[in-house]
């Protein structure tokens, strides 16, 4: 009898699994089969930064009904990654993370928040780099390290965005990378990538060069994200500046992707940049990107409108984005090996870091000691250790409507096979629903 129970437990654990952890190979993310993984993703922060309220006991990954609704929508859209900006490490995320895992969606997670004491102050990094801050980010690691669909942690988001921050903050950003990696090495059963999300301004190249250089692997970034909104409306490869991006970062030794993109000066957005980002000229050195953003907020970047009762309506932007995703060449993404896979990390010399940069930039690799050495050794004390759980409910309790206002029947998730990530479905969800099809899924001001 014990043997049968053990077998049953093993089977149930299998039902709760879809994706496996990604690893790094030079300038690429790779899956357990050794195939290159390219991010097709969304920024996900319903309610924006103002929606983050730890006292409420909620965050974007704490309500299973909401996660089930959004995972079902995202599965049809065809994305494989979401970025979540603000989480409460003390609430349970097991079901939401398991739902996204079951449909083949990874989560890239920021360890910081907009609240005081939970991020590095760009103009006063020394005073904000303290034990309480370190305990916060270690608590986030403990809460999420057990999920195989955790793609990685962002150690910072646009901390450097002007001359003053460039002169002060870079060594603290490398220190946070070190602190997170040290903690992961001591308290996690697997290596979890840690990287940075940069502003698309004159500091973008020196930040990339500074964070990816040198022999100190612990303080280096494992990946580099760029928040870029250069491609607007009917831009072209030449007018958008994308060629400049490819030229600037062509020798990257770490995975490089858009941690945000999606200019909204023209609405509805045609998303012509999708063909460029996942096309022949860019896919060799770039690993995709995360569109800003999923839910419609005050800044007007959303692709889905969420009603106060929890029902959702796809916007025309959703239809346009899905159409663009359906034209992505999955074979090109899978087989196009990065030209920088075997690239070495350059030496941290000013001639490399400051190349073409006229502003004062702090290139020091002498880092402040961890102010929470005891916590590093003993742990954060967070007992909320996340783990996958069986996903037994597949149908969302909320209604979902097409951009034309037609309710989609049978909106639900479809559990994927083990180690299978989500891909574009080839369907137009709004048209499929409007014609009676089932629309089955495929296997600031910004707000955050």
Automatic annotation (TrEMBL):
<dbReference type="GO" id="GO:0098552">
    <property type="term" value="C:side of membrane"/>
</dbReference>
<dbReference type="GO" id="GO:0042124">
    <property type="term" value="F:1,3-beta-glucanosyltransferase activity"/>
</dbReference>
<dbReference type="Pfam" id="PF03198">
    <property type="entry name" value="Glyco_hydro_72"/>
</dbReference>
<keyword id="KW-0325">Glycoprotein</keyword>
<keyword id="KW-0808">Transferase</keyword>
<keyword id="KW-0449">Lipoprotein</keyword>
<dbReference type="GO" id="GO:0031505">
    <property type="term" value="P:fungal-type cell wall organization"/>
</dbReference>
<dbReference type="GO" id="GO:0005886">
    <property type="term" value="C:plasma membrane"/>
</dbReference>
<comment type="function">
    <text>Splits internally a 1,3-beta-glucan molecule and transfers the newly generated reducing end (the donor) to the non-reducing end of another 1,3-beta-glucan molecule (the acceptor) forming a 1,3-beta linkage, resulting in the elongation of 1,3-beta-glucan chains in the cell wall.</text>
</comment>
<feature type="region of interest" description="Disordered">
    <location>
        <begin position="416"/>
        <end position="448"/>
    </location>
</feature>
<protein>
    <recommendedName>
        <fullName>1,3-beta-glucanosyltransferase</fullName>
        <ecNumber>2.4.1.-</ecNumber>
    </recommendedName>
</protein>
<dbReference type="InterPro" id="IPR017853">
    <property type="entry name" value="GH"/>
</dbReference>
<dbReference type="InterPro" id="IPR004886">
    <property type="entry name" value="Glucanosyltransferase"/>
</dbReference>
<keyword id="KW-0336">GPI-anchor</keyword>
<keyword id="KW-0472">Membrane</keyword>
<feature type="signal peptide">
    <location>
        <begin position="1"/>
        <end position="18"/>
    </location>
</feature>
<comment type="similarity">
    <text>Belongs to the glycosyl hydrolase 72 family.</text>
</comment>
<dbReference type="GO" id="GO:0071970">
    <property type="term" value="P:fungal-type cell wall (1-&gt;3)-beta-D-glucan biosynthetic process"/>
</dbReference>
<keyword id="KW-0732">Signal</keyword>
């Amino acid at each position: 009898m014990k043997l049968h129970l053990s077998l049953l437990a093993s089977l149930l654990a299998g039902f709760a699994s879809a994706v496996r952890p990604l690893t790094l190979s030079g300038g690429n993310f790779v899956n357990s089969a050794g195939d290159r993984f390219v991010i097709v993703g969304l920024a996900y922060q319903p309610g924006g930064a103002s929606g983050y309220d730890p006292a409420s006991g909620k965050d974007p990954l704490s309500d299973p009904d909401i996660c089930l609704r959004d995972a079902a929508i995202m599965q049809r859209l065809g994305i494989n990654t979401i970025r979540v900006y603000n989480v409460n490490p003390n609430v349970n995320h097991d079901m939401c993370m398991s739902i996204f895992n079951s449909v083949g969606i990874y989560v890239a997670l920021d360890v910081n928040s907009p609240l005081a004491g939970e991020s590095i102050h760009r103009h006063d990094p020394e005073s904000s780099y303290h034990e309480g801050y370190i305990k916060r980010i270690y608590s986030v690691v403990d809460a999420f390290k057990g999920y195989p669909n955790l793609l990685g942690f962002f150690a910072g988001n646009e901390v450097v965005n002007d001359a003053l921050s460039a002169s002060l903050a870079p060594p603290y950003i490398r220190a946070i990378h070190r602190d997170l990696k040290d903690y992961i090495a001591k308290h996690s059963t697997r290596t979890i990538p840690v990287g940075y999300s940069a502003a698309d301004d004159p500091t973008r190249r020196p930040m990339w060069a500074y964070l990816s250089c040198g022999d100190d692997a612990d303080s280096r970034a494992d990946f580099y994200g760029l928040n870029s909104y250069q491609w607007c409306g009917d831009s072209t490869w030449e007018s958008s500046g994308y060629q400049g991006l490819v030229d600037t970062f062509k020798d990257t030794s770490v995975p490089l992707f858009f941690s945000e993109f999606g200019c909204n000066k023209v609405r509805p957005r045609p998303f012509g940049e999708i063909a460029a980002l996942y096309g022949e000229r860019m896919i060799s050195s770039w690993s995709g990107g995360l569109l800003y953003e999923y839910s419609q907020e005050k800044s007007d970047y959303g692709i889905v409108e969420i009603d106060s009762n929890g029902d959702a309506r796809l916007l025309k932007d959703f239809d346009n984005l899905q159409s663009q995703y359906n034209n992505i060449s999955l074979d090109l993404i899978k087989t196009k090996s990065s030209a920088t896979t075997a690239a070495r990390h350059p030496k941290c010399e000013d001639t490399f870091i400051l190349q073409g940069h006229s502003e004062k930039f702090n290139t020091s690799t002498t880092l402040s000691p961890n102010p929470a050495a005891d916590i590093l050794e003993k742990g954060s004390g967070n007992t909320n250790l996340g783990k996958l759980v069986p996903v037994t409910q597949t149908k969302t309790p909320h209604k979902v409507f097409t951009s034309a206002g037609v309710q989609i029947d049978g909106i639900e998730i479809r559990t994927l096979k083990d180690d299978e990530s989500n891909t574009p479905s080839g369907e137009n969800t709004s048209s499929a629903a409007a014609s009676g099809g089932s629309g089955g899924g495929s296997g600031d001001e910004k707000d955050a």
